[in-house]
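can u pls check wat happens w/ zinc ion
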Amino acid sequence: MGGRCGHCGLASAYAPPICPCGQVGGVEPCTFGPSGTVFSSTVLEIPVPGRTPPVCLAYVDLDEGPRILAHVELDSGPPPEPGAKVSLNVKNDLGDLVVSIGSTPVLDNHGAHND
Ligand SMILES: [Zn+2]
């Protein structure tokens, strides 16, 4: 779901054709997560087109990956604290990355391990 530049090692949440370092075509698709750690989170109480407030957004440091901005599924609970473990979920209908609170991957992935 992301890419890592073979030249400078920069990880990004997608695979750009040109890395910010200037290397063209050097970004190899690779996957990150699905586990990550919340860097910070915020809850938007203002209406955003297509979304019903409150909307929780968090910056998440994916394990061995980039920092992404994702929507958080709250299930009416409190927003995650910095340092909380989250799992990358699927993209929603709006194309937003969605994470769920907790370290159990929601994605059906064969590489999952329980610890
Ligand atoms: Zn690069």
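The chain is about 0% helix and 40% strand.
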